[in-house]
Amino acid sequence: MPRADPEGIPPELKIEKTDVKIGGPIGRGVSAAVYRGKIISLDEDVAIKVIRSPQTIADSTDVKRKVLDYKSEIATLAMLQHPNIVELLGYCEGDREDETYILLELAKGSIAKHSLADLRSTNPLSTHSKY
């Protein structure tokens, strides 16, 4: 799959950091933590994906490349619109050079309450093809 152009991010998605309030943690992954937050001017609750380059990256060129990767992620999310994908609401630079905040629709509920077996039983497509 081709990589989205990191310069192709719609300018209206850029949000000033002063317009973002970060709350408590929701979850954590390998390269990001997710917090509950708010876009103050819109009075809208959001999920804030805080992406930081790993501490092991010492070279500023590698940090810039990692930030470029995250901007490509933002550009890709900006192109997606589907009821099963949380909506990208905006982004802003973080407090550090290697930090980006991706502001996403705050999903209601949790997929964790659904087991994989439950999800498979509702999927009409079999994992085994018959020819």
Give the tags:
single chain, 131 residues, alpha+beta, Phosphorylase Kinase, domain 1, 5-stranded antiparallel β-sheet, 5 strands
Structure, described:
The chain is of the alpha+beta class and 131 residues long. It has a single domain (6-121), classed as Phosphorylase Kinase, domain 1 (2-Layer Sandwich). It is built from two helices and five strands. Strands 1-2-3-5-4 form a five-stranded antiparallel sheet, covered by helices on one side. A hairpin with a 4-residue loop joins β2 (32-39) and β3. It is globular, with a radius of gyration of 17 Å. The chain starts with 19 loop residues before the first strand and ends in a 10-residue tail after the last helix. The mean pLDDT is 76. It comes from Bodo saltans (Flagellated protozoan). This is Serine-threonine protein kinase, putative. It holds the Pfam family Pkinase. InterPro entries: Kinase-like_dom_sf, Prot_kinase_dom, Protein_kinase_ATP_BS, Ser/Thr_Kinases-Pseudokinases.
